[in-house]
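Marked as duplicate of an earlier ticket. Keeping the data here for the record.
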Amino acid sequence: MGQASVADNAIIAGRRTSEGAMSGGTTSTVTPAAIVAKKALASSFRRRGIMVALFSGLCYGFYTAFMTLGMSKGVWLQWYGENSGLSSFAVLYLLGALGAATTDTCSALWAIGIANVRGRFGDFTRCIKTKPGMVMVTAAIIGGPMASTAYVVGLQMAGSLVVPIAALCPAVGAILGRVWFKQELNSRMMMGIVICFIASFMIGSTGLGDNVPDNLMLGLFFGFVAAVCWGIEGCVCGYGTSMIDPEIGITIRQVTAGISNLFILVPVFGMIAHVNAFGMVVQSFTDPEAIIWFALAGLSAYGAFMYWYKGNAMCGAPLGMSCNGTFSFWGPFCCWIVLGVVFGIDGWVIPPIAWVAAVVMVIGIFIIAMNPMDLFRKSNEEVA
């Protein structure tokens, strides 16, 4: 953005000198070199934005892998064991909420720490009191306790196959944007939505064979719940992030998600399951074998959301959203590498149809976000 403004200033200066000629000043015109420089710098800025948005998808993949790894270490092995004494409800829902709460709280601590180092914590405390700040709080409640817990529960039940299902959130967001805010939903976007849902059915078809995880279809359902909640969050966040700096907005989002998960959802599930949720929270944060992976998951989650918004600001929301949507590929890939290859945990081998479906979903998300022909038009304009 700073580099692009150099060329803009050159053009503006040329225009001012041209206007000055009308009042007797020195005559000057916008030079072709300045126009070429402006186009080159704008194109370079846009390309960097694409790389940032792609990096956000990769961060989301590592967030998924590290969080799942943390929930397989230390005290978590006891909780998921047969002799844990926990009910099936507690194992499925309470542990899912606790895993999401631990990760989101770690992410919030990273966000606050980074804001402090950059001298922006005061901006955070001021912005959270404003109307756009409260919009971000609302979005975080939807995308935090609800979406994150559904996502974690789905991961525990169906493995990394849940990730591409959760990646339906841009398609869900496009539909909700049309219903709630009367946003455009043309034939191209409808085609992209259809492609995304076809990909989700391809993934669901893996549950029709043998040797599949127990409750696979229920796990995929929770992945879809996460997609709906994140789609709602995306619609609500549109207003908030248009008026708040992305770094501050993400800090608001992560802090709200961490607090609401830790102090609302986990205690409620604990009361339902008749379990000492406070004691489990303390164990989760003090277990040295697991907390390091939750800390890494929290940092990855911060990067995923932060670079998503930054990429949108640099290359435009439509293209940024399509680049971020590549987490439907990066999620299973990172889980396979970290959990399956590095740590040798069984059950993380991805069926070939799921890899194909993940790529198909990326294509569908890309078509929803923008007209692919625009890339060729912009390339031609840059060459010209």
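See parent ticket for discussion. The chain has a mean pLDDT of 78.
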